[in-house]
Amino acid sequence: MLSLAKLQRGFAQAVLAGDAAGMDFAQGRISAAAALQVHRNTIIGALVNALRLTYPSVDAVVGEAFFDQAAATFAEHNPPDTARLAGYGEGFADFLAAHVPSLPYLRDVARLDWAVDRALSCSTAIRRIALDDCVALEWPVSLTLLSLSWPADAIKAALDDDEALQGIDTAPSPRWLLVWRSGRHAMTRAISAPAAAFMEAMLAQRGSSEALGAAIALSDDAPAIIQGEIFTASFCKIISGDPS
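RESULT FIELD:
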């Protein structure tokens, strides 16, 4: 007799594969295959809906039918490892890159959706980072830096405007976005390469000197750029005096 753990794993595999072969199901009023399909439809449907909630921009770009097919395929091969579906689908962007190579920008659209979802699930707490003995920065713990190769932010912003969407240049071009939670909303801000280099080092806690050096390596105007794009941004607050 199979142990409960082995029976559960076997049943889960059968549901995901849609194949009852190898499972010794008791016969009822409907066949084992038909009963299994009911479970499969329920589970795959729930996973597809979870992915749709996390990736609304991808859904809007490719359409409901295509999204359902792609999401179901992803779910079959990448089932959740916890009963909590919030946060499910981390690898969907890379899956789309392989599944829909004709739409290379779709991966970055998915990555932006994921970053927004993660920001919204994050605490509204504030993090303080010392620049020196007398000055510190405060910004949300949800703040992250997203490095993109395609105009995912422009695509996301134009989803309700067909004319604007058609006018977007989808040629690859490096771009950097900061994503954070503000109240109940997720905010994004496009920044330049020097500002991104500064933020990457700061978010990695490599210190302000290394962060500034990384930015200056890209532009001699880095201090002014950082002042304009980071220090005066709505997510950032400068604290003077003892930063402790």
